[in-house]
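Handout, section B. The chain below has 270 residues.
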Amino acid sequence: MSVFVIGEMASAHDGDLGKAKQLVDVAVAAGCDAVKVQFWSDADRLADRRGVPQHYRDIYRKYQMPVKWLRILKDYCGERIEFMATCFLPEDTEIISPFVKRFKVSAFESRDSELMDAICWVAENRIIIMSVNEVRGNPALDHILDSDELCERSRNGIRDVLMYCVTAYPAPLSRIDLSQLKDSHPVGFSDHTGDLDMGAYAVCAGATYIEAHMKLCETDGLNPDGGSFAHLPAALKQYVSNIRKAEVVMSPASRRSTSELELKRYQVIA
């Protein structure tokens, strides 16, 4: 399986459907496998569940995506690229379900058992991708993975994915511990660094899923998802290209090259 690359638009659409469509085009042009939005149906309920201060509540209200966008953006993606959406509220799982092949959970909701139960209920055989701040040595995560619902999915051969992330925007390189990816469970990396090579490094460390933020030149400079951790179109294309190169060099060599065989005769055997 090749590395699955997700272009995350988050709120970089500025509440403008036209910009959201442009971001889909950016992800397609960059060679991403999927483009992802973030959806919550009730900004105040999300703020209450997270217990955030007022200024976050205002942000959630400002960038709340209308439900009708899900169908519009799904149709706009068409066959060009997979459409994904992060789910934040348990009641939104059934709203998102008709439009996605995989379910995404943010690190802030990774310990929300009510949300996880709701997703497991509707996901059926679809993959759940859950962002977490630690993959190994995390007792809270062990508790989630040992839940009856996820254990049953594992027994049925569904390989859900843990996506390691550092929830800082941007995430400093000194905080990135890619050794977290050396795990037997399918793992991915949600990249908040803005570093063009970080996705490639994650592939070399074992990631099978990579998620990177993107933005437009026109994205509002005050947008919380328009910072240096989000890639502009040309940078995202280079980022994905670096990932594909890493895939090549990390793949087992199927055969020796012709040039290598030609030079083999000069090998010294004492």
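Note. Strands lie at 4-8, 34-39, 82-87, 102-105, 127-132, 161-165, 187-191, 209-213. Compare this with the example in section A.
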